[in-house]
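Pasting as-is:
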Amino acid sequence: MIRENQRLLNIFHVIIDALIVAIAFLLAYQLRFDELWSPLIRYEIIEPPSGYYLEFEKYRNTLVFFIPCLLIIYRFCGLYDPKRTNSKRHELLCLIEANVLGIVYGTAILYFLNQTDYARLFIAIFIVINLTADYIFRLIVMIILKRMRKAGKNLKHILLVGYSRTAEGYIDRLRAHPEWGYYVHGILDDNTVPGESYRNVEIIGNTIQLADMLATNKYDEIAITLRIQEFYKLEKIVAICEKSGIHTKFIPDYNNIIPTKPYTEDLDGIPVIHVRHVPLSSSFNNALKRVVDLFGAVVALIVFSVPMLLLALLIKITSPGPLIFKQVRIGLHNREFPMYKFRSMRVQEESAEQKAWTTANDPRVTSIGKFMRRTNLDELPQIFNVLKGDMSLVGPRPERPYFVSKFKESIPRYMIKHQVRPGMTGWAQVNGYRGDTSITKRIDCDLYYVENWTIFLDFKILFLTFFGSKTNKNAY
C-alpha cells in the first residue's frame, strides 16, 4: 500500500512540477517583456524590449524540451524520493541544485543550436519564480503528509530483526518523530524472552519465524538491527527478506566505531569502509578553508581594532599584570602552540593555572574579565593565531595539555578532534557546550564537525556565534 501511495504521489508531483514550470515561464516572460506587467520597464530600470528580442512563440517552443529535461533532472536530484525523514533545508538544496543544473543544461542546448537571443534577465526571473513556487508547493505537501502521519494515516509498517542498542536507538528516534509515519510491529530476537518490550515495542518471536511472518505480507519494510556478535546470521536473514521481495534495511551495531556517513571505496570489487573520514584531509578543502580563514581574520582585525584597543586600555587600568594571556594548547596533529587571549583573570601561578577549570562565579575572574568572557571578547587576540595558522575561525576548541592527557584516557575518540585545526568557535560552542559542561557531549559535537565539515557548515557556525541563543550559555 505504501509503495502504491508513493507512486501516486510521485505522479502528482510530476504533474504539478510541470505546471509550475510552465506558469513560471509565462510569468517570467510577462514580467520581462510586457510593459503592462513589468515594473522594471514601467519605472525605466531597464530599456523596453525592441525587435531584437524573440517573440513569445519562440520562447514557448523551448518548453517542449525544457520541461521533460527539468523533470528528469528533478528525478536524479532526489526530488521524487520518499520524504519521510527529509528536512525542509534538504528539499530546498535539492531544488536549487536541480534548477541550476536545468538552466545550465538548457543554456548549453540553446548555445549548441546557435539560439543565443534569449534574455538573461528573463532566465533569472524564471529561476526565482519557479524555485519559490515549487518550494512552497513542496512545503505544503510535506506539512499535509506530516499531519496525516501524526494522525495515524499513511504509516509505514516495520518489523525489526534483532534486539540491540541500535534497535533501541532506532525506536527512540521513531518515537521522537511521529511525523515520519513509522509503525514498529515488533522485534524478532534469539536472545530475549518473547513478551519483553522496549518503549511498548514487544519481542514477538525469534529469527526462525521470520519467513512465516513475511508470508503474511503486512510489512512494508524490514530493519535488521542485530547485535554485532550476531552478524553471522546476516546473510541468511537478508536472503529470506529478498526471497519475499520486501524492502530491507541494515542498521549496523557499530555506530560508535564507524561514523554516520562512512567513506567507502571500491577496491576491485571489494567494498572498503574507512573507519574515519575527515573532509579536511583533502588538499582542496583544506586550502579553501585556509583562504576563508585568512580573509575572515583580516576583516575581523579591521572591524574589531577599535574595540580591542579599548579593551586593552580597560584591562591595564583595572588590573595589574600583562595585557595578553598566553596559554599552551594542543592543536593540529597534537602539536602545542601558544594561544592568545585578553587577560580576564588575576595573575596566578602557572602550575595552578594549567590544571584549574573555570567555574561559575570564579573569584579569579576580574570585573572587566566577566564582561569579556560573557561576550567572548577575550577571544579576539586569537585572530592572530588564525593569521599564523595555529587556529582556524571555526573548529573544535583547543584544550590544555593537562586536560588532553586526562581526557584521552577516559573519553573514547577524544583525540580525533586534533585531525583538524582548532577554532575560535565551534559546533559545540554554538550548541551551548562550553565552560564547565559535559565533555562527552562536547566531543560528540566536535566529532560531528570533523566528519561532516563543509564550508557552509563553517558559515552557519559563524552566524550562530554572533546571533545564536546558545553561544553565550555557560560562558563565565
